Amino acid sequence: MTSKTVYDYVRKRDALAIKVHETASEMLGHACRFICNALSPDRIVLGGGVMKAGQVIIDEVSRCFPRYCWGAIAQRTEIVAAQCGEDAGILGAAAMVFEEFSSLTSA
């Protein structure tokens, strides 16, 4: 079972898939709360396989998130999808390697 499979069923209005979607969104909302209440970022970027669900996951997390976060922080924090999709982590790691390598070669 993959997140894509679950969201294919969410689009078909399957009751179990919708419950999984709601539970996952609540959990992501809680995770965003911890980040925001501790660090107060302007934006949270969600990535990974679950983002294949598209805007539906962003909408639901954005709906759940304010219930758990301090009001002023929740109002100004934007939740968005990673532009690099599933590759965000590996691209970030590669960028760090190239940055480190270029600093070694320019010394």
Output the CATH topology. Answer: Nucleotidyltransferase, domain 5
Q: Which secondary-structure class do the elements indicate?
A: mainly alpha
Q: Could you estimate the helical fraction of the residues in percent?
A: 55-70%
Strand content: 5-15%
Work out the helix count: 5
Largest sheet: 2 strands, parallel
Number of domains: 1
Mean pLDDT over all positions:
85
N-to-C SSE string, H for helix and E for strand? HHEHHEH
For the record, the CATH class is Alpha Beta
Account of the protein in words:
A two-stranded parallel sheet has the order 1-2. With 107 residues, the chain is mostly helical. The chain has helices at 3-11, 15-39, 55-64, 71-76, 88-105, and strands at residues 43-46, 78-81. The protein has one domain (3-105): ATPase, nucleotide binding domain (Nucleotidyltransferase, domain 5). It is built from five helices and two strands, in the order ααβααβα. Helix 1 packs across helix 2 (15-39) and helix 2 (15-39) crosses helix 3 (55-64). Helices cover 64% and strands 7% of the residues.
Please outline the helices and strands.
Blueprint (H helix, E strand, L loop, with lengths): L2 H9 L3 H25 L3 E4 L8 H10 L6 H6 L1 E4 L6 H18 L2
Parallel strand pairs: 1-2
Helix pairs in contact: 1-2, 2-3
For the structure shown, list the relevant keywords.
2 strands; Nucleotidyltransferase, domain 5; 107 residues; flat; mainly alpha
